[in-house]
């Protein structure tokens, strides 16, 4: 088990009541605009990654894949934790800075850009 500043900061945010953990709580925080940054365990399922990356991209919330479910859980006093949302801008800025220093890139969904040709779908019929 490694100890690092990012996991320590997440633990502090949890103690301060500035962290939402678990799929439903994180989703609610993102959709309500309360989430400042989202971290998803790198070893979470492909569906979990896709869900949070797409949601965070849509709602313009930074999302990072980092650590493991066990390490995130241990930092938060749980067995496992697949996703967390930091609710405080100060904690979020500090955590995001450390993530970038560690070489962790922000995860963003890639959408195809469609050209708008100003024609309605029904005009083509």
Automatic annotation (TrEMBL):
Domain (Ribosomal protein eL8/eL30/eS12/Gadd45): residue spans on this chain: 5-93
Origin: domain of life: Bacteria
One Pfam match: Ribosomal_L7Ae
Protein name stated in the entry: Ribosomal protein eL8/eL30/eS12/Gadd45 domain-containing protein
Provenance organism: Bacteroides pectinophilus CAG:437
